[in-house]
Model the fold of this input.
Amino acid sequence: MGGSFDPIHLGHLAIAEFARTHFGLDTVVFVPAGQPWQKQPEAAAVHRYQMVRLAVADHEHFQVSRIEVDRPGPTYTVDTLRELHRAAPDDQWWFIAGADSMVTMASWREPDAVLDLATFVAVTRPGHDLADLADSPYHGRITPLVVPSPAISSTQVRTCLAAGQSVAELIPAAVEDYIRRHGLYGAELQEAAGQ
Done:
């Protein structure tokens, strides 16, 4: 499951679990984007990786990879999928992401190669529905999935944090604690317990 995860929220976790059970996947590997070339995340890659690690820590079927965080320069899905294939050549890879990102697939680096390397699953996201995929020249090679997940976006989480509003219903407690300890997204900086 690729994304900027800026920050990861409960909707991401619900999507991952729904896709895992729907398609009978063994594991969902979360891959936080290192330096995505199409947008600039607010939090540094190392922070986004740590937040994902905290969010998935208690789920036996979830893992997190540093593959893009550790790669220098802009990160491209085709490079990530090739590296995953080299590491586990016998595995069948699925790529789960929001329908909004799949609509832009024609602008990705080597989109035909990308689609040959994994089965792509486009999921519903707040403000974007799967009808948007019809405009993509690759829509026939993308599997749509309507996910009954909470309507949460990372933008909403960042806005709430900056405004001093509660995010308890939006992100895991460990992620909120990390955000506040590091003063991310305009959240008031708080010291870690015991310091």
Q: What stands out?
A: The longest strand covers residues 28-32.
